[in-house]
Amino acid sequence: MEVRVMASPVIRTAATLMAALVTLSACATANAPSATSTGSATAAAAVQPTHPVEFVISTAPGGGSDIYARAMATIIENKKFSPQPVTPLNKEGGSGAVAFQYVFEKTGDMHYVMITLNSFFTTIITQKLSFKATDFTPVANLALDPFYLWVNEDSPWKTAQDFIDAAKKDSLTVAGTGTKQEDEALFRRIEDLMQTKPFTYVPQTSGATVAAALAGHQGQVVATVNNPSEGLQLYQSKKLRPLCAFTPASPTTAIYASLPTCKSQGIAIDDYFIMRAIMAPPGLSQAQQAFWVDVFKKVYDSDEWKKFMSDNALDPAFKSGLEFRQFILQYQQLHQNIATKFKWVS
Amino acid sequence: MEVFGDLAGGFATALHPINMAMLFVAVVLGLVIGVLPGLGGTSGVAILLPITVFIAHGSLPGSDATTAIIFLAGIYWGALFGGVITSILFNIPGEPWAVVLLFDGFPLAKRLGKPGLALASSFVSSFLGALVSTILFTFFALPIALKALEFGPAELFAVFVLSFATLIGLGAEAPMKSVAMLALGLLLAAVGFDTVTGEQRLNFGQISLLSGISFVPVTIGLFGIGEILASAEEQGIGFVENISARLGLQDVFAAVGELRKRLRLVLSNAVIGFFFGVLPGHGATAASFLGYGLARQYSKNKENFGKGEISGIMGPQAAADSAGVASLVPMITLGIPGSPTSAVIMAGLFIWGLQPGPVLFIQHPDFVWGLIASIYLGHLLTFILCLLAVPLLAMIMRVPYAIITPFIVVISIIGSYSLNNSMLDVFITVIFGLIGYWLRKMKYPLAPLVVALVLGDSMERELRKALIAGHGSPLYFFNSGLSTVLLVLAIVLVLIPLVRTIRARRRGAAPPAAVAHP
Amino acid sequence: MRPYQVATAAAIVLIAAVAMFDSRAAFSPSAGTAPGDVGSRWYPFWAATIMGVASVFVGYRALTTPQGVEGAFAGAKSLFAVLKLAVPMLGYALLIGGIRWRTTDFTYTIVPPFGFYLSTALYMGLFAWWLGRYKIWWVGAIAVAFPIVIFAVFEIGFRVSLPKSFLYDSGILPF
Questions:
Q1: ipTM
Q2: Domain-by-domain residue ranges, chain C?
Q3: In angstroms, rounded to a whole number, what is the distance separating the alpha carbons of residues A4 and A269?
Q4: What is the nearest CA distance from C171 to chain A, expressed in angstroms?
Q5: What CATH number has the domain spanning A148-265?
Q6: B89 to each of B82, B300, B515, C86, how far by Cα in Å?
Q7: Tens of pLDDT along C124-165?
Q8: Domain spanning A9-34+43-145+272-341 has what CATH number?
Q9: Which of A74, A234, A325, B34 has its CA 20 to 30 A from that of C126?
């Protein structure tokens, strides 16, 4: 993935500085015990799970990240990337809060990994949980799921500009997954940036029901910001069509190839994605973290995952180490700003 | 008609030896998964997903993606049938849609001592329900799926109100106690995370309560644990005494005979179940309750419900199984999963490299029609296996008390734990076991509590989504013809028993339903 | 029956009162975040209100209508029969997860978690020995066989993880 321009230079500088600090302090704590142990090379080789690993999923079976997690677990299992089975485990509830709390309490235990999406930031901020996103041990980001702006096939709007013009006249009814989560965040950003009338936002339970609501004109829903994979089937059956992509460049997937970017149509948002990232409990040693980075790098490099990503129109974006920490800090700040601005936190 | 040619081709695919072999394995696995507490169709399908990758990529001789989908779907059919077994035998729901069988299935098995008849009744009605649903699936999948897309919050709210309305009068012996239990169910359903505002409520700061109080651990406690406590008191020792001496295939013939008397009920419930199953996100559980409510509404002897009435088994079973099949319809035709299980099956399609949705019919007709044909074959296979197992299963109720009683507690705890991997759910089960025992003793009806707990959450969500979409105007519910018709129907259903009661009172004779409890 | 009926109704009224108190924000002007929404507290508040009012009626009826004279239990024997089941069950559930006391900076372990398999062995064994009065080798066989079969089916067959004991993390036992 190419380097993209972050929202503001201030955030960028702050993010880099904080990432460096967090990395340094993590190194310091991780080094302390290993100084007393015997040769670090032999210790690192022995660091691997000794019993089955729980792969915690913050949504119900069949939900967005559940499908991604199960695809990853299937690859890990079938290719024997881990010496112990990696078993998916759903811990749904509270938009991820239950899963985050569960993994947070497993401090220092490498037998837990968790798939996260943007609720990792939004839920921790809005539910006032006792920990921060940066407390967890970051493993890797495997993909970025872009947002498209969708309308019904019979909608009068042909471009994103038509949509914005309509939104400036009336309060449009839009749908998205959950409340105070990524979909609403994006709509609020549009509202803020384009100075439209406030959207009437109807929360749905999953990406699939969001797409279905738009396709069926349920409750006067006129637009959504579904991921490309969620809208794909209804696009093919001519029920929905995308107006533009919130990405820096037009998509490369064949079916969406001619789709313009939203930026080129006047909505200057190209830095917002759903991350498909792996986190581990707080306080993993560097060697333990390295084990998981290695496993998920192998998953990322596998042909199965590449095919899966292109089938689902995901942007491949492997991030680990400092780059990933920077990304986490940037997204945390972004969501914090939205939460403050729209009074998501009382 | 073109459909028949396609279907014949589908049968040719499904009858391929490797496909039949995998279907058989899957159905047996599905039955086991359905019977095992805590393992449902959804988790069973999810657990076996990695294996299907090998199947889809031809690791077995002659296998391909069609074999893989037949395998996954077979597990689902098996689980649909198997989930009712523990409900009927132990009063522990193996699957959410089997909860309603606690009302009449277990009483028939235990109180009336006819476990074989109870099981066989549920299997024959399941089979008929699934058959009706599969036929509808074969011929009308696409138009129905498109119609279902138009069900917005107002229409869905009306559907839930209608379901409630059919169940009005459950536990009519003590109306105020029923109301209190109904409200308790609604209250419990509200605990945790409010999805509309993203606020926490009634969780008293507990993060673990944010996932809410799920109805599975509660019903396992209220019915499963509550029942063994109650029977310990009644009989001291001995789980089932008056079990019918003859256990055998006679029960199956008896069940077929009972089915013939209720053919209209079962067929109409199957059709209703189909429409319910197609509605994205609703499906078998809600359909099973509506099926029970309708069976009760149709019935001439309502007072038998809750005491082992066969209509109370066949009505919901036909609707639930039909809905289970139908939940695959929006997934196959539109790429929208109609239930969690079909969502996981859809994940399978992605992992094998297939795209669900209308393109599937064009690009891989053999796959789609092979799947449809396997629904017929899979249900037939499951049905035969289940009927053969009836005498064997009924024997379980004769296991000595000192083993069966702790064993029921053990499977209750597995069931509640593995639903969400949470110890909290285990304590919910134990506590509601004690509560259920006490409420039963105090003659509070438990059915309204369970119904409200199951349907309450979705009903509230649809209500509030409709209010948001309608900017707070209650008139919004009458915006569409469909929701108006459904709501009017619901109001009529509520009013009929009320009018009857008042009329009966005027005549001076107290209606049987209003006889006060001693 | 009367005191029990009244006490039960009173307990439900109490629960309703707590829930109503928790949901008192139903009437705050900023109840719903979205225009038109009634807010997250409206529904639980009215459910609790209905529950409370209905229970007041139930309690009133219990006080004013003739009630059966028998107690809640048919004698001490049947009470004992229920306790014989209820107490081991509670113990079993507590044993699985262990008992811990958490203060802000330290967690005291009163009973370590025995996990599902060890607790099940103890629980099934207890019943076989105490209520079944089986011979000791039968008791042993039951206590061992059930957990092993469950382990094989759930952990190995279906990869469903059930709660593990305190000996699992240290690697002494596989469960």
A1: 0.93
A2: 2-64, 75-169
A3: 12
A4: 8
A5: 3.40.190.10
A6: 12, 27, 31, 21
A7: 999 999 988 899 999 999 999 999 999 998 888 888 889 999
A8: 3.40.190.150
A9: B34
